[in-house]
Here is the input.
Amino acid sequence: MSSKEQGNKVKSLPPGQRPVKRLLRWGKDHPTITGSVPKIDLGSWTLAIYGEVEKPLKLNWNDVLKLPRIEFMSDFHCVEGWSVLGCRWEGVQFKYIVDLVKPKKIAKYVSFECADGYATSLSLQELLGGDVLLAYKLDRNFLEEALGAPLRLVVPSKYAYKSAMWIMGIKFTLRKELGYWESRGYSDNADVWKNDRFSR
Here is the structure.
């Protein structure tokens, strides 16, 4: 996609979407899959990055904050039909994590494991875009619990169920692992510009 095409997309909404002013808060505006927002203690929280990688990692909160930080403006699209334009995310570019752990040649996919039992996965190739982040701030504030604190994935080109919240584990795999919503009839591709909401 050319930079001109990308610029045109930023100025418009994907098909079937309407703009709203802010992200819905899980547990407040929207029910969670378990009925409550996970309570995570930053003092004991760790992020495990493992699977088909040469250098598995286990990071605590301070480790994450020491990683190179990036800011990125992107739009956020929920499969239910609402979008928030111009979100300012801050965090770690996912491709930096890839460089750290050095995936094996057989690693084709990445699964994200969350504190509430949620899971989703994407291809490694999809996660190498410069706008894909492990985010810990939104609009210059640390994330609220209801928005996925302490760490969430942000994949702007996909519907939000691919942007996993409350991440605890990142697993590199040879084979695709269907996530929570994907195994319940939602599209595994989740391309917002193709209106790809449900599996066919």
In short: Residues 17-31+42-194 form a domain with the Sulfite Oxidase; Chain A, domain 2 fold (CATH 3.90.420.10). Residues 3-10 form the longest helix (8 residues).
